[in-house]
Amino acid sequence: MRLTEVVWEWYYYGETEKVVTLYSLGNALVFFSLSAQVQKHSVCGCPFCEVWYEQCSDVIKFVETLGSFSSPELLTALNQLTNAFDDLSDEECECGSFDIFFLSGWEKIRTLSKAALEKLEWDLFLEWDLLDQKKNN
What we know:
Order of helices and strands: HHHHHHHH
Structural class: mainly alpha
Oligomer: single chain
Shape: elongated
Low-confidence stretches: none
Number of helices: 8
């Protein structure tokens, strides 16, 4: 069963934690796919720390808790993404530097995130808006 099918069971049975985990993944991937300029202006604190502890943890949590509901293609895309974070150089992980988003490792992350969003079928989840995100923005 695809995520786009099983999510309705979670929603119906009130398994909101699973739905939240799914939407957190999508929102993290959206952030990762933004242009370097937009990313630079979207964080308040240390760019690397904020991205790592907020968005990357959402990717890892999804894989660990909902990976069994995911297609092999999505899991491969997410594993490639987490590997790209592991492969960042010291310069690309520099605390306090907003310029990290303009380096090549981050461009790779943007590309991989866009592919993962497609595999996730994120457009459908945005259309359905199961967490009423439009009302909260």
